Amino acid sequence: GAVVSQHPSRVICKSGTSVKIECRSLDFQATTMFWYRQFPKQSLMLMATSNEGSKATYEQGVEKDKFLINHASLTLSTLTVTSAHPEDSSFYICSAILTGAYGYTFGSGTRLTVV
Amino acid sequence: AQSVTQLDSQVPVFEEAPVELRCNYSSSVSVYLFWYVQYPNQGLQLLLKYLSGSTLVKGINGFEAEFNKSQTSFHLRKPSVHISDTAEYFCAVSSGNQGGKLIFGQGTELSVKP
Q: How far is B111 from chain A (nearest CA, A)?
């Protein structure tokens, strides 16, 4: 089946540094990918929609300059958390739309801890 | 815009008992509905989805859900739960067009006790 590979699974970084999270579609082309953020014991909050070859569309309240999204190819979307702070610590999950058998497939998530 | 409400944040149940996790949605257009399960520190696994057709949808691991348009509900059921069903369950909705955003409910923590 369609698989999205997300890396890294866990990352610890120092406050003020930047972290890049990658999502790759392994056996299909993902023209649209979504990035979610999840706080402990809470739901998934949609951060942005990423379309290959164009600028990402951010949800209201999400800082575009802090959460940089790049979708340069049909198989790779990246989320870069810039100048990370402890409040950016969270679980980040990517998702891709499956055309054909309509649905969504999810990456395994990235646990970001900013110290 | 669509929204999803999961009516129970926590559902404790004994092993082999039946369970129902409730989900209501709101939308001004036709929708696609999904149920996902999430184990700790993992991504989401699709249990089942409703796109069209029969309102009773059967999914993996013995789960099923019924789409009720008049009540705008999509409740998840399982006749007999196992310890391994302990997890977080999310109901989600997307608009009836390709490329639609997937919006999640708040989640229901199912805790199965021996």
A: 14
- Spatial distance between the Cα atoms of A17 and B33, rounded to a whole number of angstroms: 39
Per-residue pLDDT tens over the stretch B11-69:
999 999 999 999 999 987 778 999 999 988 788 999 999 988 899 999 999 999 999 99
Q: Which two tokens stand for residue B9?
A: 């944040």
Inter-chain CB proximity A104 and B51 less than 8 Å:
no
Partners of residue A36 in chain B, C-beta under 8 Å = 104
Q: Edge-to-edge strands of the sheet including A4-7? A: A4-7, A19-25, A76-81, A67-73
| Residue B75 and residue B36 in contact, taking contact as beta carbons nearer than 8 Å | no
Chain B partners within 8 Å of A99 (Cβ): 98
Measured in angstroms, the CA of A87 and the nearest CA of chain B are apart by 18
Residue B18's φ and ψ, nearest 5 degrees, are -80, 160
